[in-house]
Amino acid sequence: MIIDPMKRFLAASAVLALGACAAADGGDKSPGKYAGTAEQALIAAWGPPSSIEEAGDTRYLSYRQHRAFYIPAATPICPPGECVPLGGAKSFMLNESCTTTFAVEDGKVKSWRRDGKACAA
């Protein structure tokens, strides 16, 4: 059976997109559910932070995540005698990151924020 190159391209794109969504949050690590919990409970769930900063009575625990994917060039359509690239797209690497920072006061998580394109919604 011959598979249309466009269908192959669309199927591969869908698989990459779904994989990106599944990998974005790394499981159930919703930062909002840690508000009010002890710092040690946060570390037990998220692991050691990428960095810790202190300002006055507040500690900032930051967790950095990075993901990269290879986006292949579009499959060419090759009618007899001529081969034309589909859309002219070239392959490239897509790099995205997310930093989640928790503010801890008196040993408890008071607030959090996320920055970056790889952050889960």
Task: Tell me the layout of helices and strands.
Blueprint: H1 5-24, H2 39-46, E1 51-55, E2 58-71, E3 92-105, E4 108-115
Antiparallel strand pairs: 1-2, 2-3, 3-4
Structure, explained:
The protein has helices at 5-24, 39-46, and strands at 51-55, 58-71, 92-105, 108-115. The protein is an alpha+beta fold. It has one domain. The chain starts with a helix and ends in a 6-residue tail after the last strand. The model is unreliable at 14-27 (pLDDT under 50).
Give the key terms.
121 residues, alpha+beta, four-stranded antiparallel β-sheet, 4 strands, 34% strand
A few lines on this structure:
The chain is an alpha+beta fold and 121 residues long.
- Structural class based on helices, strands and sheet pairing: alpha+beta
Instruction: Count all strands and give the number.
Output: 4
Question: What is the count of distinct domains?
Answer: 1
- Secondary-structure element pattern, one letter each: HHEEEE
Assign an overall shape. rod-shaped
- What gap, in angstroms, lies between the N and C termini? 40 Å
Amount of helix: 10-25%
Mean pLDDT: 77
Number of separate helices: 2
Question: Main beta sheet: strand number and arrangement?
Answer: 4 strands, antiparallel
Radius of gyration over C-alpha positions, nearest whole angstrom: 21 Å
> Could you tell me the strand content as a percent range?
25-35%
Low-pLDDT sequence parts: 14-27
Name the assembly state.
single chain
Strand order of the largest sheet: 1-2-3-4
